[in-house]
Every structure is written in C-alpha cells, then in structure tokens.
Amino acid sequence: MKTTRLRQHARSIFKAALAAADPYDAVVRNLERVRYDRFRHIYVVGAGKAGASMARAAEHVLGRRITAGLLNVKYGHVARLRYIELNECGHPVPDERGVAGSIRITEIVERAGREDLVICLVSGGASALTPLPAEPITLEEKQATTRLLLACGANIHEINAVRKHISRFKGGQLARLAAPAAVHALLLSDVIGDNLDVIGSGPTAPDASTFARAAAIFDHYGIRDRVPASVRERIEAGIRGEIPETPKPGDPLFDRVRNVVVGSNRLALDAAAARARELGYRTLVLSSQIEGETREIARMHASIAREIVDSGRPLKPPACIVTGGETTVTLKGQGLGGRNQEFVLAAAIDIAGLPATVVLSAGTDGTDGPTDAAGAIADGDTLARKPDAAAYLAANDSYHYFEPLGDLLKTGPTHTNVADVRLLLVGS
Fold it and tell me: What counts of helices (H) and strands (E) characterise the chain?
C-alpha cells in the first residue's frame, strides 16, 4: 500500500469524524422535543466556536418565537442569521469584544422571568469567548493570566477552574443570573470526560471547583507570584470566605436548569473508525481521553506504529489506530504552531524510515493554536524530505516546518468543536 494512498485515506477518515461532529442536526433533534407553547418569551444565548451552526439550528426550529438572542463566536466563524446575533471576538486570548458580548448576554438573561425560557448553546472555546472579569480584575489582567496558564502547560480543566473564579459568567453563574427562568443548555463537548462543569467553564452547571483549587493550580506551576495582583488577591479573598463561591451541586437555582451534551469527541472517533473499516483497515479506537504533554503522547503513538510494523500488535496491517482528547504544549521556543502540528512533527521524527506509515492529527474546529491550519500529516519519509525536524520542534515551530512541504491540514472554520482527532495508519 503506497504512502500516497494512506495519506488520502487518513484525510477521508478525518473528514468522516468532522461530519459526525456537526452540531446542527443534534441541536435540531433536541429542540424539537421541547414544548414551547408554555413559555412567554424565549431567549437564545451562548458562546463557542460552533456557535454559528448551533444558532442556525435554533433558528430553524424556533424562528420568530425567539424574543432575543446573542452568541459570542470566534472571528470568522459566522453564518447568516435572522433572529440571533453573532458577536465575533477573540480566541484563545480574550478581547474587548468578548467582554462587550458577555455583558449583553447577561443583560438578555436577566430579563427572563419565571414564565420564560433561556436556551444556552455552548461549544468549545466558550470560556475564552466569554471574558467577563470579576471586579476589580481587568481584561488585560485576565488575558495575562490566560497566557501564563497556556504557556506553562496547564490543561483545560485547570485553566477553567481558574477562569470560573475570576469571572462573573462561568461556573454556574449564568444560570444564577437567569433564575427564576427555565434554562435549557445544549452542550457540544470538547473536553475529556464530557464533564458538565468543564464544558465552556460550565456557565449553567454546578461548579465543583473552588477558590482553593485555583490557588493550588498556581502553586503547582509556580506562577502564583507571576499572576496579576488583582487575580491573586481575589483568589485569596475567596479562600478566606470574603467572596461568595460559585454555585455548587444541590443549589435550588438548578431545579429549573437542564444540561444536555449533544455531541462529543467519542462520537467523532466512532465515525472515524467506521470509515476506516469501510476502507479495509483493522481498526482500534484506543481512547477518547488522552491528555498530557504533546511530545510524549506523540512518542507513544510512534511506538505503537513500530510495534505494528515489527510484530503486528495490537493490530496486523493494514491497521488504523484512532485516538482523541486534548494534549498540552509547554512553550519553550518562539515559533508558530499548535498542539496538533507539534504532535505530528514529534511523531514524524520517531517514525522516520518506517514503511507505509502515516500519522495525522487535527482539531475538529479547523484551527490549531494561533494558526490557520487544523493540524498536519506526515509519514515515514517526511524527514527524508526535510531532515531538520528536531530544530523546528525545539523552537515550537511546527507550522513553518510543514508549510513548505504542503502537509498542513487547512479546513477553514468547521463550525464544530469536539477536541482533537489523531490517526495512525500502517499499510500492508
């Protein structure tokens, strides 16, 4: 089996995963089950990279029943709508448009009364897209905190635990603002385990994290003295009980709140596996919950490739290994890239020389880090074409390694987001 054909198959398998992650049909199915005649007003709010697709589905079902609506979405991730406004703003680093949109969302939900319904549409990226800092923290100070956490390798659970406690929006606080209205939240999960309090930092879910947990994260990464003073002081005041905690499980305000996961990484991986089997591969979905340092996870995948080639374990070729989840990159260089591109570059080094072996990793949202690529693809001959991979990896410059090779995956905005899909193909 030629490498060119393996590459074509890898792209086709990833395309199947994207199709399964499309939230439009899932939102339509869920909204069609709800009786709306008992509500006086219906408000649609939310945030996330898949916001445009989810809002379009809400308009399809509800149409003129929508009293008002606003979603914060990433720049460029938009659609033409009639009843719901899309507010473009910054991701992964929040900006002032995100703050303005978040304020307007809170104003909309605060209008809702007991006879009204608030539909909240949340997808990956919602945390960064709804930056409503708790006073006296400024947006710049929240941005600095986000950058510190991203650079030190904190995972999404840790980042969200901090965000909730320096925000007026996250960690169940949007549900608190909407009370006593009924709240129906539809969630497209991009987090490992699909925890309700982690997806989008859980704006409508009970929050299990605490101020003490946020402080422990700072200490774990050795950045407590580096975060802005206002952030540190708020966290410490919360620990002393001077600031109310986020709403916890059992709070009566959640009696009229319903949270439903409508899409996830697992569904995307299952679709990828089905497509791989159609193409004739012995296929194994290894895990949808892989996290950790990107380069280490890449080496693990490369080791599996070598084992398949050498011994036919865990699958005999032609074989396809599918994994999901979300890894982290500890930045040391000044290059350009994202976790998926870095994964493929690290894996390419370790599979160098292996026959008929291809690795692909990409984000289902169509963007990987601060780049226009979703990810990258490589094979056992990639280093023969461009042997200076180690230098690019040391500089965290995977984008510029793959760009001249034509091996970046560029999908454009996909209007979904269910974390990452990684593929390892070994031909016969």
Answer: 16, 12
Helix 156-164 × helix 211-220 angle, to 10°: 130
Residues contacting 8, CB < 8 A, separation 6+? none
Question: What are the two backbone dihedrals, phi and then psi, of residue 393, each rounded to the nearest 5 degrees?
Answer: -65, -40
Return the number of other C-beta atoms located less than 10 Å from residue 152's C-beta. Answer: 18
Q: Which residue has the tokens 């089950």?
A: 33
- Beta-bridged to residue 118, according to DSSP, are 43, 183
Asked whether the whole model's pTM tops 0.90, one would answer: no
- Show Cβ contacts of residue 349 under 8 Å, excluding neighbours closer than 6 positions: 302, 383, 389, 390, 393
pLDDT tens per residue across span 313-362: 999 999 999 999 999 999 999 999 999 999 999 999 999 999 999 999 99
At residue 233, φ and ψ (nearest 5 deg) are -65, -35
Cα separation, 95 vs 427, in Å, equals 46
3-state SS, residue 79: coil
Task: Provide φ and ψ at 260, rounded to 5°.
Answer: -130, 125
The per-residue b/e assignment along 181-208, b for 16 or more CB within 10 angstroms, e otherwise, is: bbbbbbbbbbbbebebbbbbbbbbbbbb
116 in Cβ contact with 42 (< 8 Å): yes
Q: CA dist 208 to 47, 112, 160, 195, Å?
A: 21, 26, 11, 10
Q: How far apart are CA 361 and CA 368, in angstroms?
A: 10
